[in-house]
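Hi all, posting the design record for the shared folder.

TITLE: backbone redesign
STEP: 1 of 1
STRUCTURE INPUT:
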């Protein structure tokens, strides 16, 4: 039996709670200091995020809808989660109402990251460091001030992680079922906002099955309660949508699986000088996964390059342009600057003419650091994951499930990037808290992993 590595159940780093409060205060003050810029610019960046204009039409349309709400919702081109949670603040106070709610959620998320870090990372300043790193990520600075799904979905993903780790590490008679249920509610809300997150539940379940130390949790009701509650909102809406429209699914518009596959195939083939078949050309529908893979089989080199590029984009892009371009509007083409980068020769020309542009230089440096970070995460997930599967190392329950969740996010983000037709860099935002915490934990424990019994690391304590 190996010694347990990781913080002891319930025992965090000294001063972690105070550090978490400091992180929350710093996050709140940062966003409140940015708010005057939003007001002075007439909230112009509010709709500069992904599909911001379309989402604003949905929020405003729902606020002024007449007649049957269900009929309006089933006719909308996006899932209800994309506008329901912004509708109340928008109806009360317009853009500033939505931004203030999102600032509150961002502050809570940063506080939760700090609290988790104080429990799983054995550094005296782990809570402060991890919390501030998370709060200062470019996406986490810009998104709370924009009408983007991540501004609400991401904090609920962080809350899900915090509640899940608390549930698996708490004493049996301390309300663990309630913690699992609350975790399910949080990820259920996130799934209703961004349905692609639903893949996290089956992926995490399979990984839990593979890890002997985590498998014991499957013998109790907790994880099943969490999964049931987590799936319920999207399944309920799918049932309502299907009954109302006679079409199985959860929305009619562009933000769905079939539409993204069609768009992905169309963009890839045009980028490689391939004439797309007629069934890919209509802009008002999608294609099945089988039809998509038929195109992949016909044009393997083109799609292989696209898959590789998408993986590099989602795990190697620094996303500093979320601030410089998407928020501040520097070098932003109001007619659609992203469209310039959709086709290979245009992207090459754009890079060549902007080599010394500060926006590109900063993004290049940020991308280098991001790529190194995710290379470390992937390496550690494989290294620690294999050891957990083989049973050659024993981590605390929190560290074990943090490894499982981070690994599941790596898979989820990679697969999502292969489906979504553009703007893949934002897809990792709901997972960034787990990545930061996992990387810090793995780095802190690197000298103690794995270690045999008698190494001095036992009962959940260690000296880095």
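Okay, here is what came back for every position:
SEQUENCE:
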């Amino acid at each position: 039996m190996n010694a347990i590595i990781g913080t002891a159940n319930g025992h965090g780093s000294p001063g972690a709670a105070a550090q978490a409060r400091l992180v929350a205060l710093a996050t709140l003050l940062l966003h409140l200091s940015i708010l005057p810029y939003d007001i002075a610019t007439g909230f112009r960046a509010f709709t500069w995020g992904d599909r911001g204009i379309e989402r604003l039409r949905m929020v405003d349309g729902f606020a002024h809808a007449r007649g049957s709400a269900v009929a309006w919702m089933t006719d909308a081109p996006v899932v209800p989660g994309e506008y329901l949670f912004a509708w109340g603040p928008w109806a009360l106070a317009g853009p500033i109402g939505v931004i203030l709610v999102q600032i509150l959620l961002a502050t809570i998320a940063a506080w939760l990251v700090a609290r988790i870090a104080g429990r799983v990372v054995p550094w005296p300043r782990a809570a402060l460091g991890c919390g501030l790193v998370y709060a200062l990520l470019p996406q986490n600075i810009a998104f709370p001030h924009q009408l983007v799904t991540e501004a609400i979905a991401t904090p609920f993903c962080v809350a899900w992680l915090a509640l899940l780790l608390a549930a698996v590490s708490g004493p049996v008679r301390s309300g663990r079922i309630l913690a699992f249920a609350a975790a399910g509610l949080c990820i259920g809300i996130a799934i209703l906002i961004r349905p692609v997150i639903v893949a996290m539940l089956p992926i995490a379940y399979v990984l839990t099955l593979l890890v002997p130390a985590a498998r014991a949790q499957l013998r109790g009701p907790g994880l099943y309660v969490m999964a049931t509650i987590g799936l319920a909102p999207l399944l309920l809406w799918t049932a309502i949508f299907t009954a109302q429209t006679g079409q199985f699914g959860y929305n009619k518009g562009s933000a769905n699986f079939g539409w993204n596959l069609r768009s992905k195939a169309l963009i890839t083939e045009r980028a490689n000088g391939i004439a797309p078949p007629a069934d890919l050309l209509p802009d008002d529908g999608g294609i099945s996964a089988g039809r998509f893979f038929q195109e992949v089989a016909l044009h393997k080199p083109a799609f292989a390059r696209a898959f590789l590029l998408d993986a590099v984009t989602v795990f190697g892009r620094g996303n500093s342009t979320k601030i410089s371009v998407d928020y501040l509007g520097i070098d932003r083409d109001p007619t659609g600057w992203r469209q310039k980068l959709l086709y290979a020769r245009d992207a090459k020309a754009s890079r060549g003419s902007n080599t010394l542009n500060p926006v590109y230089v900063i993004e290049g440096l940020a991308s280098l650091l991001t790529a190194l970070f995710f290379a470390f995460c992937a390496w550690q997930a494989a290294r620690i994951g294999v050891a957990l599967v083989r049973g050659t190392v024993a981590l605390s329950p929190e560290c074990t499930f943090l490894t499982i969740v981070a690994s599941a996010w790596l898979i989820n983000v990679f697969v999502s990037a292969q489906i979504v037709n553009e703007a893949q860099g934002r897809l990792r935002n709901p997972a960034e808290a787990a990545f930061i915490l996992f990387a810090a934990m793995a780095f802190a424990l690197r000298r103690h992993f794995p270690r045999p019994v008698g190494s001095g690391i036992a009962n959940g304590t260690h000296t880095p």
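COMMENT: Residues 335-346, 450-464 have pLDDT under 50 and may be disordered.
Let me know if anyone wants the other runs.
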